[in-house]
Amino acid sequence: SQQGEEDPQALSIQEGENATMNCSYKTSINNLQWYRQNSGRGLVHLILIRSNEREKHSGRLRVTLDTSKKSSSLLITASRAADTASYFCATDEVSNYQLIWGAGTKLIIKP
Amino acid sequence: DTGVSQDPRHKITKRGQNVTFRCDPISEHNRLYWYRQTLGQGPEFLTYFQNEAQLEKSRLLSDRFSAERPKGSFSTLEIQRTEQGDSAMYLCASSLLVNDEQFFGPGTRLTVL
Asked: Are A83 and A107 in contact (CB under 8 A)?
């Protein structure tokens, strides 16, 4: 079963604009991770935020985590054509070894 | 490049046949995961190894599926009596710490005719 649910399912923006994707989950977690997948490079880890953190930055990426609302957001600033990909959130549940994945947000950056 | 490798990259088989996939993780990673992914969906967890011990299996992993990691290095995933519903991308990942950043292989795309 999938715990994370990304929103929106698809997003199309102009190059240079910011892209925001959201993820909601259901149970207590140790951490939440964001991954990117495109046909050229497969699944690549972007950023991990732990349950005791509220915000984290990595280059043009900014992730927030609200454990009270069981939600996270991924912001990509100054988008580029190379950011075109599917973005997945994955949660590490407290009770087991599994990463639980959402269905992803498909991001298209128009030149 | 010493990333995660998977073999084969593609496999086409007839229904009822057995198939076996191999995953070679990053050498210093003692944690290894198998996932299945279908089009438009995120990966679904199948099983997890710490060294050679299989510590968790998903209910998705029916009796036809078996995974091994005999020496705590490479792993194999076997599907017996394949069904058309087994058609998917099978992904392997490894990590240094449990459920920390996972490094994925390119996957094995299985098509069951």
From this structure: yes
Q: What are the tens digits of pLDDT across the range A43-65?
A: 999 999 999 999 999 999 999 99
Question: Is A39's Cβ below 8 Å from some Cβ in B?
Answer: no
Q: How many Cβ pairs within 8 Å bridge chains A and B? A: 57
Are the Cβ atoms of B43 and A96 closer than 8 angstroms? no
CB B105 within 8 A of CB B23: yes
Q: Give dist(CA B34, CA B46) in Å, integer.
A: 5
| Secondary structure (3-state) at A82 | helix
Q: Do A97 and B101 touch (CB under 8 A)?
A: no
| A30 contacts in chain B (CB < 8 Å) | 99
